[in-house]
Amino acid sequence: MNTKNTAKKETAAQSLPRITVLDIFLASAKLGLTSFGGPVAHLGYFHQEYVVRRKWMEEKAYADLVALCQFLPGPASSQVGIGVGLRCAGLMGAIAAWVGFTLPSILLLGLFAIIVQRMNVAEASWLHGLKLTAVAIVAQAVWSMGTKLAATRKQAGVAVGAAAVVLLWPGTYSQVGVIAAAALLGLIMYRHEAAAESVMPAAAASSRDVHGCRQSFIYLGFYFALLLLLPLFSQWSNGGWLSLVDGFYRVGSLVFGGGHVVLPLLQEEVVAHGWVSQSDFIAGYGAAQAVPGPLFTFASYLGAIYGGVPGLALATIAIFLPAFLLVAGVLPLWDRLSRSITMQRALQGIHAAVVGILLAALYDPIWTGAVRGTADFVIVLCLFAMLVFWKLPPWCAVIAGAAAGMLAQLFV
Description:
The chain contains 17 helices and no strands. The chain has 412 residues and is mainly alpha-helical. It is globular and about 60 Å long. Its main location: membrane.
């Protein structure tokens, strides 16, 4: 009898799709080439690719990961991508996910470092069309996640409340507070419910074996050691490359909220030290809005201005390394914690809160920063229909959005 059960389990395991490092790299590279609109929009693209299309993660597992990355400093969307790679294929999967998602933006901004001063892309019509595409992508993510994670009256109430609080009192700390409050509400509302089955995908089993608690403490130890020691080494070396690494690592370690929040910190770091002029900084910011991928790759542009290809490489690694170490260190501990009955009850509230936070971000800054009038709303409506009802891939919406932005400009 035991032999038959074992044989059935082995057959089921063999039928599961095997996610390779190459699969992760190719999927993340496609996202890196098409993910416009900033970190909130990136979460929508990730949801479509990893959850809906490829089914590498379940809705709840993805919401867990998004909630965790809201607590961590650094670029939230990049951390979610790293977490997906780590769960699916271990350390190499995490590296492949990060490289694939960031490399297109790094290369484009490296080129912009050479020619961006002769360009004016900040008000380009096709860029406005891409912002409208981001509205449709985020709306699709809210629609899809809401129907699964905020379907009951209790969950919908938590989602609406979370959206209201985040909109009325904007800021990273309000998001963290909302998630914490939602966890408490989940404990209260679902205190009589039994534990559900683990939402961790089967591919994560090997990752869990490799990245246990001991490895978590090693990664976290490196994170804090570099945060404490790099300033000392920078002072002893009297500037140079170590100062560059120290500055960008510190920014990546201490900024909460990611995205645009990092810009004033980078400006203080590079302009105040005379590494980059104010005019070059502003020109690079305009270029960073025009390329897909994480806004943190703005550091790649700044590093290239400061020191060419070596500066680009060091600045990029330094600003993303804290995010990588934090996710690799915290995610295995989070996975173990999330399997407890108490945490599963709290997660039901957290899942609904994540939907509410995404809904709030859909309005501000995504909607308010992109939709200027009736024509823009019509474009968003058509793009939303392409994604939700016609089931077209996101890259089709990206192309259509850019083209619609240029066409709309002709009739203004």
